[in-house]
Amino acid sequence: MIEVRDLSKGFDGVPVLHDVDLVIPDGEVTCIIGRSGSGKSVLMRHLVGLLQPDTGRVIVDGAPLDELTYSELRTVRRKFGVLFQGGALFDSMTARENVEFPLRTFTDLSKAEVRARADECLELVELPEAGAKKPAELSGGQQKRVALARAIAIEPQYILYDEPTSGLDPETSNTIDELIHRLGTTMGTTSVVVTHDMHSVLSVADRIAFVHDGTIPWTGSVDDLHTATDETLLAFVRANEYKIGVPSSTA
Amino acid sequence: MEIARPPDPPSAAARLREGVAPLWTIPAGLLQSFGSYCMLMARAFNLPRDLSPSLYGRNLAEQMVRIGIESMPIVAMATAFSGGVVVVQAIYQLENPLLPLTIVGTFTEQSIILELATLVTAFVLCGRVGAGIAAELGTMRVKEQIDALEAMGLNSVSYLVVPRVTAGVLMFPVLYVVAASVGMATAAFVAELSGALTVQTFWEGARLFFRPYGVFFGFVKSLVFGFVITSIACWTGYNAKGGAEGVGTATTRAAVLGCVFVLLADYVCAAVLL
């Protein structure tokens, strides 16, 4: 379980998050939604210790990240797989080498086993033919899918997705959503999805946290959206052309 | 209608403070940069317990090829021309009926072994290797690849900085040998070509005052320069901010700071070792 307690963060004197409290239960898909620039990605980076809060703390499986040594923090980080917004694939490696990288670095698998697992992950993201290509030879969407394959390669306990479906076509977005959902249901992976794509949220979310102006004014399940009264949340949902799960054009 | 009163102009004291404030920030900024550099190096060489020799070994081998082997042609070319220029200038300045022609070889050998082979190589590496490392790490920084390494639980500083700095320190002496050899050979060839003295006379002069300590001095400088160039480049690249502009700034800083600190290190080495 990941707990965020009273977390505040600012950059160059400009507050981005203030007094954020959030609990991410094990085995569930938690979607962090909100407008661009609301602080979603900053919050996600705190979960894996890539940013240190000005005040407050993040606790992963009972371990407060601010009290850990760098070595201990790296041990905690190995429980995570992170899909960055831009993919963050290593340019010097092929797609397969990117997926193999965490396996070669953190597991004792043989070369054949590493290759087999990498191929399996590329198959999962429907890019079995992309293994030999460098990131520069892949489209933005393909890069993101390879990055997802890399994130899930070592079967982490937690997977953080930063805008997993942005820039993808609807069909591929559905594939990614299905994969996120499947990882949660079959492997018990805890997922945190940062997104403003409500279609994706309604497909995968068990819980939703709405970030607005650096705070979380609303949390709840997809069903709770029906009874939500928070005006900023409803405005955000309506702006996505959804009214509690139903496109406004058909409502 | 009431007309809004314009704000009072800043007082002389305030204007002075504004003008002086940036001056105070210069030493503070330098101190901050030096601290940041030292912390990066400390973090890089405080190797994690789970250091994987295969992972770092492969990375080190790649960097040794890129920094050392691939730099050899440009280093050889630069020192060849430098050797030629030195011998032409030596003939121009020392051709005198009262001086033996062997002095041209002596002068050239001392210049190349003690100074030119290391300094020309260092300047070439500042541009080729320093700027390259800064651009590569800077791009990794702005494209979140360094964050990806950290998020995986890897010590990104050790993984990225240690192989590059180690490769620089190990390969610079090799490049020094290449630079000195090519420089001397070209100098001998140009001496013969000039018609002022023969190759035999040139080598005779070069051997006359040759001291192995000069070569030792060159090797020590090579190790220092290798560390200075690669560590500064890693520091500027690793701390790049923003997008393409940030990478450009990091690259420029790596080349400029590398050259400046090579000259500084050159002076310190000469003052301490000669």
Describe the sheet with the most strands of chain A: 6 strands, mixed
Distance between the termini of chain A: 37 Å
Q: What is the total tally of β strands of chain A? A: 12
Give the SSE order of chain B as H and E letters.
HHHHHHHHH
List the uncertain runs of chain A.
246-251
Tell me the Rg of chain A in angstroms.
18 Å
Oligomer: heterodimer
> How many alpha or pi helices of chain A?
8
Order of helices and strands of chain A: EEEHEEHEHHHEHEHEEHEE
Number of helices of chain B: 9
The order of strands across the largest sheet of chain A is 6-7-8-3-9-10
Low-confidence stretches of chain B: none
Average pLDDT reading of chain B? 89
- In helices, the fraction of residues of chain A equals 25-40%
Explain how this protein is built.
By secondary structure, chain A is of the alpha/beta class. In chain A, 35% of the residues lie in helices and 26% in strands. Chain A contains eight helices and twelve strands. In chain A, the strands form three sheets. Chain A has a six-stranded mixed β-sheet with strand order 6-7-8-3-9-10, with helices on both faces. Chain A has a four-stranded antiparallel β-sheet with strand order 2-1-4-5, covered by helices on one side. In chain A, strand 9 (207-212) and strand 10 (215-220) form a beta hairpin. Chain A is globular, with a radius of gyration of 18 Å. Mean pLDDT of chain A is 88; it is low at 246-251. Chain B is mostly helical and 274 residues long. Helices cover 83% and strands 0% of the residues of chain B. Chain B has helices at 12-45, 53-67, 72-94, 102-142, 145-152, 156-194, 199-208, 212-238, 244-273. In chain B, helix 4 (102-142) packs across helix 7 and helix 4 packs antiparallel against helix 9. The termini of chain B are far apart. The A-B interface holds A 45, 48, 50, 70-71, 74-78, 80, 82, 84-86, 88-91, 101-102, 104-106, 160 and B 48-49, 52, 55, 139-140, 143-145, 147-148, 150-155.
